[in-house]
Write a structure and sequence with these properties.
With 339 residues, the chain is α/β, with parallel strands linked by helices. The protein is 41% helix and 14% strand. Strands 1-2-3-4-5-6-7-10 form an eight-stranded parallel beta barrel, surrounded by five helices. Strands 8-9 form a two-stranded antiparallel sheet. Helix 4 packs antiparallel against helix 7, helix 7 packs parallel to helix 8 (152-176) and helix 11 packs parallel to helix 12. The longest helix is centred in the middle third of the chain and has 25 residues, at 152-176. The model has no long low-confidence stretch (mean pLDDT 95).
């Protein structure tokens, strides 16, 4: 058996893109992180520029190297959202780059988003990175309440739409030796257990497709995050360390949160810093040990009630404590030595 369950701990920079990458890298290194999950947004990493200008990519890599940080994954969540979503509207304008948005015409945005994801695979390979985390969007998330009613054919068409748009992207990923890791998340084609199984079936278990496991989005839906790890052991290629707190039922608050803002005490749940919520991390780590996952635990820090500089440092300490040595033999071997 493996003697150590040590995994690198990284900081996802998606919540830090208001700060220059150089500052985030310096802070993360000072706190003791092993690396970054580098977001392809803000100033942190411009995929178009990185794919066209080797000197720019070298500069990005130098910032990381100067701070002793590694990158196991690049994130392109925001652009990926525009690939399958229907409609594409003002919400997407706020999250994609101007080069992708262009004149805002829906199919043009979609085509440029697809091109950026293909380029992301090539940039990842140029950086020596084998995982790209992200979103896919979904043409059928808008039907999640199932009223007004839609037929089974409409839902099936949504999965077919995902497969049609993403298979060519995944073929590029496969050619570059890079995996795309979909974060199972409300709003995506895969958001819970059964939709995840259906997503894999839709693309015939494409070898370049995997999951970015994030327990916070599973727990508030009532899905067991440790069980998800065991059931999808062959498909989990990256993991987020993020927590969620469920509030005691008061007969008013529901899981859909009533359009209330983050941190509002009337909500039924909220994202919180690791260790402050209801994710059973002991069960999670034991599940990871069972499947042999040795990839990063990437802190995606989100907590509306905590300063992020404090939170990022504390989260690292919490995640480090989730690592313990594994046994080298069965715990009951001692009984075989009785005289």
């Amino acid at each position: 058996m493996t003697e150590s369950s040590s995994r690198p701990v990284t900081l996802f920079t998606g919540q830090w893109v208001d700060l220059p990458l150089a500052e985030v890298a310096q802070r993360a290194a000072g706190w003791g992180y092993d690396g970054l999950e580098l977001a392809a947004s803000g100033e942190h990493l411009d995929i178009w520029r990185a794919s066209e200008d080797p000197s720019y990519l070298a500069e990005r890599k130098a910032i990381l190297e100067d701070n002793g940080l590694k990158v196991w994954a690049i994130s392109n969540h925001l652009t990926g959202q525009a690939i399958c979503d229907d409609p594409i509207d003002f919400r997407h304008k706020a999250i994609v780059r101007e080069r992708v948005w262009g004149d805002g015409e829906q199919e043009g945005v979609r085509e440029r988003a697809i091109e950026e994801l293909k380029r992301t695979a090539k940039v990842a390979r140029a950086m020596g990175v084998e995982i790209v985390t992200g979103f896919t969007g979904s043409a059928i998330w808008k039907y999640v309440a199932m009223f007004p009613p839609v037929s089974a054919d409409v839902i099936e068409a949504g999965f077919e739409d995902f497969a049609t748009k993403w298979k060519p992207i995944l073929d590029v990923f496969e050619g570059e030796g890079v995996k795309f890791a979909l974060e199972v998340h409300p709003g995506e084609i895969a958001y819970d257990y059964w939709s995840s199984k259906r997503t894999l079936e839709a693309i015939d278990n494409h070898p370049a497709f995997g999951f970015n496991w994030d327990p916070s989005h599973l727990v508030w839906q009532g899905v067991d995050p440790a069980g998800f790890i065991i059931d999808f052991a062959d498909h989990i290629v990256h993991a987020h360390a993020k927590d969620v707190r469920l509030r005691p039922a008061d007969g008013r608050a529901g899981r859909l949160s009533s359009h209330l803002p983050w941190g509002d005490p009337r909500r039924a749940w909220d994202f919180v810093s690791v260790g402050h919520g209801d994710v059973h991390w002991d069960s999670v780590i034991r599940a990871f040990n069972t499947i042999g996952y040795q990839g990063p635990l990437s802190v995606e820090w989100e907590d509306a009630g905590m300063d992020r500089f404090h939170g990022a440092q504390e989260a690292l300490e919490v995640v480090r404590k989730l690592t313990w040595p594994l046994p080298t033999s069965s715990f009951d071997d001692a009984f075989s030595h009785n005289s």
